[in-house]
Write a structure and sequence with these properties.
alpha/beta, 288 residues, Rossmann fold, 40% helix, 10 helices
């Protein structure tokens, strides 16, 4: 079981280096190929929002300035790839190619950011996003949620500072949901290589706690030994209790089923995933 192609969306922003460093760390056990994808927005899509009183020359100036900003962002994204690849000892290729070591390539597409990332994710084994926080630009959060919810692909959400070790000590939530089961099965390539795997359940006042025994048996059939603990959140929010548990396990990767409830309910009521995504100190491996 291996990961061959890892997709790393880049924007030319400050998070690109963390995204790429995490993508290379995730690729290392499998000598995967990492595709750094930069999406060029179409400047003409913004034109209908300008008043008809704006003259043609002014609109052209706006288009030209926008194009120059996009070109600059693309160069910054390529520079981040060059720097991260040099630090990780990764060769940058003109086209994706499978070799005995990690390789990378730079690709551009044009259109809506979330749509382009989602389309590219269909034929990717893992998609790596930078750390998300409340108040981020809508495009980043939209792309993350679209890939997670609609593309059905595993997502690795990086920490603000990529850890020196990756997926050596893994904490994985199990709550009996399909999302939780899918996350654990998708994470098997990393679980098989981990030094320790700790499964945990959250004791909920309205539903008690779920046993991890069936999950432990499943992992055991794959040759993976695992521990188990039950977490009583007390007065803490569920999301906070999950992050505290990961810290107590010294986890450098947290595996969770993302958005187990409907997207509509998450949008209006927030949720556990939203809290964990916004406050995690370790990388998150999420599957819907």
């Amino acid at each position: 079981m291996s990961l061959t192609k890892i997709l790393a969306p880049v924007t030319g922003g400050a998070r690109d280096e963390a995204v790429l460093a995490s993508a290379f760390a995730a690729a290392k056990p499998f000598a995967s190929h990492v595709v750094a994808l930069f999406v060029r927005p179409d400047p003409s899509e913004a034109m209908p929002f300008f008043s008809e009183s704006v003259s043609g020359p002014v609109l052209q100036e706006i288009l030209d300035a926008t194009g120059e900003a996009i070109d600059a962002a693309s160069k910054d994204a390529m520079a981040a790839l060059t720097k991260a690849a040099a630090a990780a000892g990764v060769e940058i290729l003109a086209q994706p190619e499978k070799r005995d070591q990690i390789t990378a390539s730079f690709r551009e597409s044009e259109g809506n950011f979330a749509d382009q990332i989602t389309q590219a994710s269909y034929l990717s084994d893992l998609i790596v996003f930078g750390p998300l926080a409340e108040g981020d630009k809508p495009g980043l959060g939209e792309a993350f949620e679209t890939v997670l919810l609609e593309a059905g692909r595993p997502v690795l959400l990086t920490a603000q500072n990529p850890p020196h070790t990756f997926a050596r000590h893994i904490a994985a939530g199990c709550d009996g949901s399909a999302a939780s089961a899918h996350a654990i099965t998708a994470a098997l390539p990393y679980l098989k290589r981990a030094d320790s795997v700790e499964l945990f359940t959250i004791c909920r006042p309205d539903a008690g706690s779920q046993s991890c025994q069936e999950v432990r048996e499943y992992l055991g059939l794959h040759g993976i030994a695992s521990g188990e603990r039950t977490v009583d959140p007390g007065q803490r929010a569920i999301g906070a209790a999950i992050l505290d548990c990961a810290a107590e396990c010294n986890a450098d990767l947290l595996v969770l089923g993302g958005y187990a409830r409907s997207r509509l309910r998450q949008t209006f009521f927030g949720g556990v995933t939203k809290h964990v995504v916004s406050h995690a100190k370790v990388p998150l491996f999420l599957v819907h």
